[in-house]
Amino acid sequence: MESNRPFASILILNWRAEKYLSTCLAALAAQKFQDFEVILLHNGSPNPETALQNLPLLAEKLTILTSAENLGFAGGNNAAAKNAKGQYLILLNADAFPEPAWLETIHQASQDYPGFFFGSKLIKANNPQTLDGEWNVYHASGLAWRKNHGQALSQGSSAPKEVLSACAAAGVYPKEAFDAVGGFDEDFFAYMEDIDLDLRLQLAGYRCLYLPHALVRHVGSASTGSRSAFQLYYGHRNMVWTFIKNMPGIFFWLLLPAHLFVNLAYLLLGLIIPSGKEIIRGKRDALRGLPQAFSKRNQIQAACRVSPFQIAKLLDWN
Question: Against a cut of 0.90, is the pTM above it?
Answer without folding.
Answer: yes
